[in-house]
Amino acid sequence: MAGEVLQLSGVGVRREGATLLRDVTWTVNEDERWVIVGPNGAGKTTLLQIAAAMLHPTEGSVEILEEEIGRTDVFELRPRIGLASTAVAEKVPAGETVIDLVLTASYAILGRWQEEYDSTDLARAVELLDALGCADLIRRTFSTLSEGERKRVQIARALMPDPELLLLDEPAAGLDLGGREDLVTRLARLADDPSAPTMVMVTHHVEEVPDGFTHALLLRKGEAIAQGKVDEVFTEEHLTRCFGLPLSIERQNGRWYARARAPRP
Ligand SMILES: Nc1ncnc2c1ncn2[C@@H]1O[C@H](COP(=O)(O)OP(=O)(O)OP(=O)(O)O)[C@@H](O)[C@H]1O
């Protein structure tokens, strides 16, 4: 059996009297591709922050890449994890070029200073940007990119250090239909690549789940209400409970579609 990449047991997070996560027990094994789905405020980003070793739980235990949080140096652990999220994008220094943004991921820093990069680093950064359809953007300033271009560059950056775990927080948010479909296709290709890292992606929309994603966890009000193989989790019953309204769901050519169920006459 493949090794455990994430192991959460009884995880709770409380902030300022609010419960953000409650009793989450979750295991992600090597080579799995997970999607975390839930409505606004369900705790998805909080759970991803735990998985990224950016947040300590209030209670419960967390093991990431076989390192126990609280007993390991998170600064050594974080470079083994690729994280693409708006929170990271917001911290990109003004004037940072796309190529530097990807290169600096090798040191898990934002903002190029005096670090040295060799031709192998440069070749890898260019190759990743090319694979994500960003070859033309290499010399551009990150702040001048469109939302769709930024999302793709962030994924290239997250992949740069060859992480063992790739975390994507709402990678398709804010994209137009063409941009969403392009990204979902690229993520499906990545999911299908046996050399790609274990992946966990957060989304509000089942339509954004790429083909090849194997597992799903549904969050509602900080609780994991269903988790396991995607076909077993994406059911009318689970989705209806998760979003709090009657939903139907179907699958076509590997993609999922959900809509509100018409009220019974
Ligand atoms: N420091 C904090 N203090 C109190 N409440 C917080 C704090 N940080 C987050 N929350 C609340 O915790 C809940 C979960 O937030 P989180 O960002 O994890 O949800 P989410 O599922 O990612 O939401 P969205 O889909 O809207 O991005 C939200 O209701 C949020 O307002």
From TrEMBL:
ATP-binding keyword on record: yes
A single MF term (Gene Ontology): ATP binding
Pfam family, one: ABC_tran
Taxonomic source organism: Actinomadura yumaensis
InterPro entries: AAA+_ATPase, ABC_transporter-like_ATP-bd, Metal_Ion_Import_ABC, P-loop_NTPase
Keyword terms, alphabetized: ATP-binding, Nucleotide-binding, Transport
The keyword ATP-binding belongs to this UniProt entry's keyword annotation: yes
SUPFAM superfamilies (alphabetical): P-loop containing nucleoside triphosphate hydrolases
Official protein name in the record: ABC transporter ATP-binding protein
PROSITE patterns cross-referenced by the UniProt entry: ABC_TRANSPORTER_2
Domain ABC transporter: residue ranges: 6-246
